[in-house]
């Protein structure tokens, strides 16, 4: 239609997550010659994302330990992805009950130029031990529109630290400072994995992504390689 009826001669397609096969298929359907079709491609995983994977017998405890330890304990905005809706509600409740009131050392602060002794003492006092606020909520398509808006608004504003969600959360999400993404369940394919971890670190700053492996599910080799598994 664009070419035949509207006379369009130039096409530009942009996406952050399409595989080479998908891009070639789109080019084919648009009638773009193969030698002209795919002009620019970048790395599938942004360089500012630090990926890790693990296989654990007790995944609930492993998730709690992951969030309780460094570096996730110091990250402000985290998304935990689950496959099933009921899983998001259970995991959000688990995080709220298991991690409330835990005391952790905040990251040490570097000495600022020009600070006198009194200022350094005040800074040190502020950086002492304090309760870690693990505010977590579930998000999935089965919630009411009002509840989904409430959770997303709280997360976007920084009032909500962690969202446990299905893939329904993140579609169109424009929050550049998501610092962590955790896959409690494995994504269905590498394309989905890249799309979901791509919601972290959009501001270019370092972000962490962790994937819990399921021993009964065969994982695409690309994900293992991206996570540093030989």
From TrEMBL:
Q: What EC number(s) does its UniProt record assign?
A: 5.6.2.4
- Cellular component GO terms held in the UniProt record: chromosome; cytoplasm; nucleus
Keywords, in A-Z order: ATP-binding, Helicase, Hydrolase, Isomerase, Nucleotide-binding, Signal
What InterPro entries does the database record attribute to this sequence?
Helicase_C-like (IPR001650), P-loop_NTPase (IPR027417)
* Biased amino acid composition, Basic residues: 120-129
Molecular function terms in GO for this entry?
Answer: 3'-5' DNA helicase activity; four-way junction helicase activity
Give the catalytic activity.
Couples ATP hydrolysis with the unwinding of duplex DNA by translocating in the 3'-5' direction
Among SMART domains, the record links this protein to: HELICc (SM00490)
Q: Which GO terms describe its biological process?
A: double-strand break repair via homologous recombination; telomere maintenance
Q: Where is this region: Disordered?
A: 106-129
According to the record, the signal peptide region is 1-23
- Gene3D superfamilies membership: P-loop containing nucleotide triphosphate hydrolases
Q: Which domain of life is it from?
A: Eukaryota
| Residues of the Helicase C-terminal domain | 58-230
Which family, according to UniProt?
Belongs to the helicase family. RecQ subfamily.
**Xref: PANTHER family:** ATP-DEPENDENT DNA HELICASE Q4, DNA HELICASE RECQ FAMILY MEMBER
**Name of the protein in its database record:** DNA 3'-5' helicase
Q: Which organism is it from?
A: Pedionomus torquatus
């Amino acid at each position: 239609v664009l070419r035949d009826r509207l006379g369009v001669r130039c096409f530009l397609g942009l996406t952050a997550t399409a595989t080479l096969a998908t891009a070639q298929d789109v080019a084919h359907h648009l009638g773009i010659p193969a030698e002209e079709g795919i002009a620019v491609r970048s790395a599938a995983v942004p360089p500012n994302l630090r990926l890790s994977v693990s296989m654990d017998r007790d995944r609930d405890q492993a998730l709690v330990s992951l969030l309780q330890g460094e570096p996730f304990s110091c990250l402000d905005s985290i998304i935990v992805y689950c496959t099933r809706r009921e899983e998001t509600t259970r995991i959000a409740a688990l995080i709220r009950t298991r991690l409330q009131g835990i005391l952790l050392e905040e990251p040490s602060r570097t000495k600022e130029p020009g600070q006198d002794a009194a200022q350094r003492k005040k800074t040190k006092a502020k950086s002492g031990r304090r309760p870690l606020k693990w505010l977590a909520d579930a998000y999935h398509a089965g919630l009411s529109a009002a509840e989904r808006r409430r959770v997303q608004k709280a997360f976007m504003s920084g009032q909500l630290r962690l969202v446990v969600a299905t893939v329904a959360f993140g579609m169109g999400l424009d929050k550049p400072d998501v610092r962590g993404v955790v896959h409690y369940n494995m994504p269905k394919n590498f394309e989905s994995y890249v799309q979901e971890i791509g919601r972290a670190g959009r501001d270019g700053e370092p972000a962490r992504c962790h994937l819990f492996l399921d021993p009964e599910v065969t994982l695409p080799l690309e994900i293992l390689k991206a996570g540093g598994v030989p």
